[in-house]
Amino acid sequence: MKKVLNILYSTRLMAVLFFAISIAMGVATFIENDYGTQTSKALVYNTWWFELIMIFFTINFFGNIFRYKLYKKEKWSVLLFHVAFLFILIGAGITRYISYEGLMIIDEGETTNTFFSDINYLNVIIDDNQFQKETNNKLLLSAWGSNSASFTEYFQPKKDGKNHQIDFKLIDYIPWVEKKFIEDDNGVEHIKFVESSSGSRHEHYIKRGQIQNIHNILVGFDAKDGNANINIFKRNDSLKIITKSAGNYQVMATQQKGFVKQDTIQDFKLRSLYNVSGLPFVVPQYPTKGDIKTVRGKKDNKKYDMVIFDVTTDGKTERIELTGGQFNVDGQKQFKIGDLNFRAWYGAKQRVTPFSVKLNDFQLEKYPGSENAASFASEITVFDKDETFDFRIFMNNILHYKGYRLFQSSYLNAGEKIEQTHLSINHDSWGTAVTYIGYFLLFFGLIASLFVKNTRFYDLKKSLEKIRTKKATLSIILLLISSIAFSQHNTHKPKELSETQIDSILQKSIVDKKHADLFSQLVIQDAGGRMKPAHTFASELVRKVAHTDNFKGLTPSQILVSITEAPMFWLNVPFIYLEKGNTQIREVLGLPKDTKYARFIDFYDENGTSKISHLVIEAQKKRIQSKLEQDAIKIERRVWLLSQALGGGILRIYPIPNDENNKWVSQPETSQANFRGTDSVFVRQSLPVYFQLLQASKKTGDYTETNKILDGIKKFQRKFGSKVIPTQDKIQLEIAYNKANIFVKLAKYYGYVSLLMIIFVFFQIFNNKPWINYAIKAFIGIIIILFIIHVLGLAARWYISGNAPWSNAYETIIFVGLASMFFGLILGKKSSLTIAATTFLTAIILSFAHQNWLDPEIANLVPVLNSWWLYVHVSIIVSGYGPFALGMILGIFSLFLIIFTNEKNKKKMKLHLNELTTINEMALTVGLVLFTVGNFLGGMWANESWGRYWGWDPKETWALISIMIYAFVLHMRLIPGLRSKYTFNLWSIIAFASVMMTYFGVNFYLSGLHSYASGDKVITPNSVYYSVSFVFIIGLIAWFKHKKFYKK
Fold first, then answer.
1. Strand ranges for 40-130 from DSSP E
2. Which residues contact 325 (CB under 8 A, 6 or more apart)?
3. pLDDT for 863
4. Nearest of 757, 758, 753 to residue 478 by alpha carbon
5. How many CB atoms lie within 10 A of CB 29?
6. How far apart are CA 524 and CA 537, in angstroms?
7. For 152-164, b where at least 16 C-beta lie within 10 A, e where not — what string?
8. What is the DSSP letter of 125?
9. Which end of the chain has the smaller Cβ count within 10 Å, N or C?
């Protein structure tokens, strides 16, 4: 027994469990991406072996409390957060096995006390015409692999009556079911009928002799009863058509047109566009023999699934097919076996609350001039035998009542009126309470462990002080790192464009910079409803289309004025950036291989057809895209954005007076916006008159009259758009922010200063003169100033957007850079090497933020993010990325120290290795505390927003994987064979891959609540393979050196 307990409590088992659960969860996220949440639960999260890992973790936690005597009062903080995990696991168990949740759907004005379970069941109601019994059996099925399920129920209406045994056996499970026509020579003839009356293409297969109702029009294929509005039939191997309404057609190949006469038999032409009774349709091929079969479709959460069961009782078996899915109660099938009647459906189990809820009013607020929801809420009344009261449910404001919690989840938009609200509901008061106790113990224990005595972090601080008293200097490692930095910052200067005539016209016709700045102060309303100065759009236009901050020496504002004034001229300006090295796209466009910028007209042939649209259409169908197709998609987006600017529709500068949604329109849209009187004249004439006056102003240099027109537009904006227009201070700040380009410049300055500081530290090794020490202190002072500018830049972005600056990919990377620099300055305040390394790391992070695939545009938030939880959860968890990144760079430095160790410098290198490793462990400890607290705060946010503190979303799952991996790294010192400084530093680099996956991998590889992409069509960049190779090579070399000089 003692031997078994020793195994269960061992640190080796702990390491195995860390890896086992991390690998299992990582695999599950990819299963979910490809096969759906239900499959990931069926194969991983809800399996017995996954729960067994949790049980072993609990036993191991409990045992190590006694093994390491964490119950002693001086170790209370460590005990606290270890006990916290026991509470969290117990709470999770209560939630899984006792609690339940679902969705309550209420139409406006209606009252209900029922809701649909979020778990799928096989629901069956059995009766013998006198007595009735309902059974509900959970079904958790996998879209990958085989499934098996069987249930036995008993139906005994009377105590002394016959007891019927009823067996249910799963025969097949078909996910994302769809009907598909399968050709078969033994089948029945079908006609393929393609229509697009709803604005999108739909295919229908009509069986010979039958009629289908297609958008309330009866369409038949050789229908005999005469009821079809459109009847296509065969006569002597040719097709005929007869209709109850007149229509027309056009032969696609020849463009020949003709008419369809009412109640007249006519020849039917294949591959021709018919329009009868308002229904446009085509029959592309001659009728084919086959059958309509139920098949598995592509992954689509909007589609239902099908289950096929054999139901056996009293020696008789009936096979049933049920179509359904989550929250579904439709598709019920009735059948009879012997004397028993059955009604079955696959999907939700209907549950009942002890109170009723009435939806009095659903309220939806939109961003100004946009269809994007800013917030939505349900005004409800709760009816109970004890009391009746009104309540307003909206995002992050939930109703707690009698152990139930109701959350605003979604809504059904039926045209202009919202007729239905969707409220998430859960019953998990005990599970939530126990879990929250665990969270609070965890937060308190982790944070306390950073400050109180007798903790590992306290020991590390003391150890660092001792190391610094013996500190020696480093050598060649610094020079090597600086060479790496120079190679990473190497760029190629663009070649000069040769279109001298266009350059000459531009320089002669371009507007004065000061006047362009005045034009750029006009406020526009973008498609998402955000109000911003025209300067912001101009900057985005130039950056996205031309991939530069200025073009031909012109400011973005000058370019915007020029495009708006002379769009026809800009059709011929080489302005659209083409990806480097892709000669294929240039061949498609008919351009020389060295062309850097293409003209708008280069993308269209003489018929006005896009030259690259076929590439984009084909690319969007594929999971893996070629480089040509990827570049075609990027370029097509640039062409589209420029087309919007050329058409003038993007400049929505005119507010519609008294508009309910505060909509603004562009000059081309004013004719449809119901402006009246002088307002109508002003919005139609102001821009044309402005551009007429601008021609004269450019010649004379006197912009007085044109400035008056701009002033008039601004006054019009203030008068009719006062509810949404930003203040003048905010407009000026946003323009200044755009011009300053703070974070691009900071990336350069951080990089330059870090390289110079590394060089000076290198010289300090050999010549410790006072002036070198002063120079290094000066560099630290400059870095602190850059850090302050970094903070001010984020603060400015916060003020401009009105949201915390960590709500999208670009902002969080900028914030990670800030957090890295902050912790580098704090943890390395007496280590110039650490500060230099951190500054270099921050430069890389900021440079990474400005890669082509990240958009720095400021945008409005979706409703769920418009919460104070965003400030707390995201700021803390993103701050954890900084120390992890610092640990990674210090790990690399440490391995290079080992690599360049020799007999002569062994003593000095060992001291520096001890120092960097100690700082590294402190950084990882701080990072793990922040990351863990931030992650579980996110769980609390989710629980307060939609009633689920853990849903195995890929983002939260990979965050947990990162916590597990870093917990393993920090516990390696307790595991025999893994206690060396080499192993720790190597794993501090490897572990960072989990952080990269948590942030970038989930956002761009996997689908989920937090992702920015669908999870498809992503190719791993080459930099990943280079990074893995780099770590493998230095890790291998360092291993040999460590074995020679450090291993005892």
1. 100-107, 111-117, 121-127
2. 120, 303, 304, 305, 346, 347
3. 60
4. 758
5. 25
6. 8
7. ebebebeeeeeeb
8. E
9. C
Cβ-contact 557, 586 below 8 angstroms: no
Distance of CA 926 to the CA centre of its chain: 27
Residue whose pair of structure tokens reads 């909509």 in the numeric block: 663
For 932-954, the three-class secondary structure string (H helix, E strand, C coil) is HHHHHHHHHHHHHHHCCCCCCCH
Residues of the chain with pLDDT under 70: 198-200, 367-372, 374, 413-418, 465-499, 619-626, 762, 764-768, 851-855, 860-871, 946-947, 1003-1004, 1006-1020, 1048
Q: Beta strands of 237-384 (E only): which ranges?
A: 238-243, 247-251, 257-260, 266-267, 272-276, 279-282, 288-296, 305-313, 316-324, 333-337, 340-347, 350-366, 373-383
* CA 122-128-129 angle, 5° bins: 115
CA-CA-CA-CA torsion sign (673, 678, 679, 685): positive
Q: Tokens standing for 1015?
A: 């999870």
Cβ atoms of 947 and 424 within 8 Å: the answer is yes
CA angle, residues 479, 483, 488, in degrees to nearest 5: 145
Neighbours of 1047 (CB within 10 A): 10
pLDDT on residue 169: 96
Q: Are 353 and 425 in contact (CB under 8 A)?
A: yes
Instruction: State how far the alpha carbon of 221 is from the alpha carbons of 107, 212, 422, in Å.
Output: 39, 9, 41
Give CA separation, 109 vs 251, 301, 419, 438, 760, in Å.
Answer: 51, 29, 9, 41, 75
For 698-748, write each residue's pLDDT tens digit: 888 889 989 999 999 999 999 998 888 999 999 999 999 988 889 989 999
Quote the tokens at residue 539: 């900057």
Reported as a single tens digit per residue, the pLDDT across 511-535 is 888 999 999 999 998 877 888 999 9
First and final C-alpha spacing in the chain:
35
**Helix, strand counts (H, E) of the chain:** 31, 34
Q: Are strands 316-324 and 399-401 parallel, antiparallel or unpaired?
A: unpaired
Q: Count how many Cα atoms sit within 13 Å of the Cα of residue 151 in the half-sphere of its side chain.
A: 15
Half-sphere exposure at residue 578, Cβ-oriented, CA atoms within 13 angstroms: 25
Residue 682's nearest CA partner among 665, 663, 696, 698 is 665
Closest residue by Cα to residue 80 from 461, 456, 429, 437: 437
Contact 126, 156 (CB under 8 A): no
Tell me the CB-side half-sphere exposure of residue 841, using CA atoms within 13 A: 30
Q: Which residue do the tokens 């015409």 mark?
A: 129
With CA atoms as reference, report the closest residue to 958 among 895, 1000, 902, 913.
Answer: 1000
* DSSP letter (8 states) at residue 601: G
Cβ contact 837:890 at 8 Å:
yes
Paired residues of 104 in beta bridges? 423
User: How far, rounded to the nearest angstrom, does the alpha carbon of residue 154 sit from its chain's CA centroid?
Assistant: 48
Three-class DSSP labels, 32-52 = HHHHCHHHHHHHHHCCHHHHH
Radius of gyration of the chain (CA): 34
Cross-strand partners of 100: 427
From the list 336, 424, 442, the residue with the least C-alpha distance to 378 is 424
* 329 to 176, 343, 857: CA distances (angstroms): 17, 12, 43
Q: Is there a contact between 142 and 43 (Cβ–Cβ < 8 Å)? A: yes
The H-or-E segment that residue 847 falls in is helix 832-849
Length of the chain measured in residues: 1048
Asked if residue 64 lies in contact with residue 1037, where contact means CB atoms within 8 angstroms, the answer is: no
State which H helix or E strand residue 390 sits in.
strand 388-394
